[in-house]
Amino acid sequence: MSVELTSGRNVLGGPLRACSFDPLTGFFRDGCCRTRGEDEGLHVVCARVTSAFLDYALSQGNDLVTPRPEWRFPGL
Question: How far is CA 37 from CA 21, 27, 31, 40, 57, in A?
Fold first, then answer.
């Protein structure tokens, strides 16, 4: 089964650019907000987040701080 990537455009219609470097985030861990069908988390928006946001996400069951090497996610 082949899976096509979504269009390489940002929400303003311009080209996608990498938005994270340390750590590399996104579904493909390439720093860009690209996705495909098996991306259950829908990694389609890049944002700078605060500690308060990370605390809130954790309180809602979405731990973005703990490293998850099996997903190549170093934690934020």
Answer: 24, 11, 18, 8, 24
